[in-house]
Design goal:
The chain is mostly helical. The chain folds into three domains: 31 residues, no CATH class; 74 residues; 110 residues, no CATH class. Helices cover 75% and strands 0% of the residues. It is flat.
Length: 243
Amino acid sequence: KATEYTERYRENPARAITELTQELAVRIRSRMVHIERVEDEDLVEHLLELSRNDFPEAPLPVVEHTDAPLRREIAIAEGINRMTGPDKDALRQRVDQYFKLLKQHHVTDFGLLNRGFYKPSTTLLVLLGWLPFAVGYALNYLPLKAGRLLAERLAPSIEFIASMAGVFASLFWMIYVAVIAVVLGTTTGSWWSAALVLVIPFLGLYALVFMNFFGKWKQARAAASLPEGDFKRILRKRPFFQP
């Protein structure tokens, strides 16, 4: 409880802060993907990619009301952490072979599973959506990047980077928008023009959605150009892992 650390802080501030940070790290770790061995990082990342493609998520709404995807990924990492010996070596070999085939043919796992995503309608959406994406990306890049860099610099451990980056980016974004509003208001003489800054977060959200959409379209396009024989041969090599 917070009150416990308040009492400890009065007695020994440095020790209380250290203990609180350690407890937070333990609690955060239970809600994140943890890989115990460095040599297993590539294997786990590949398996997570396969799992995400087996259970695709809709880009909207942004707020997720279930932790099922996170629990699924934690289970995969924990499964690999528990594996040893020949079973892990055999799995690693199958996964490496599959992703090597993907790289050789310049395709991705998502593209193989979603070749139908490349079609005239999605191509038209990409062409029409490129300009507002560029505007939204440019307008929101600076505060987000600054927040990430500051979090990487100040976070006591990797578990805190994501949450701290979100806080810092929000603070930078509010300052950034306020400055733009003041500049617009003073240079144009109309505070109605300053209200245009309200579209910046919506353009930023659109940019994120478009990046996801464009990435899927690009991967599907590459897979669609693959000869049918190569497509079936690679797909047969796709590994399966049940944690």
